[in-house]
Specification:
Layout (H helix, E strand, L loop, with lengths): L1 E5 L8 H12 L4 E6 L2 E4 L3 H6 L7 E7 L3 H13 L5
Antiparallel strand pairs: 1-4, 2-3, 2-4
Helix pairs in contact: 1-3
């Protein structure tokens, strides 16, 4: 399952939001990857997420596969779309 979302928070996907994203992704059994700027990384890896260097306005594609893929996709979309609670 793939879902696209635009980074809306002003600071982009820096340390705190990246940590929140990885923590949320780890709650699910499904494999979760994100694709941006031509790179695909494991969404459960803080180093992978940070390596993307995503800023406000960048597109992020959330790719989930497995038992709870829909729940994982929806939860991560909501986290990013909701500006990580900023």
């Amino acid at each position: 399952m793939e879902k696209s979302v635009i980074i809306k928070n002003t600071s982009g996907l820096h340390a705190r939001p990246a940590g929140m994203f990885v923590k949320k992704a780890a709650e699910f059994k499904a494999t979760v990857e994100v694709q941006a700027k031509g790179k695909k990384v494991n969404a459960k890896s803080i180093m992978g997420i940070m390596s993307l260097g995503l800023a406000q306005g960048d597109e992020l594609i959330i790719i989930t596969n497995g038992a709870d893929e829909e729940a994982a996709s929806d939860a991560l979309f909501e986290l990013v779309d909701g500006k990580f609670g900023e």
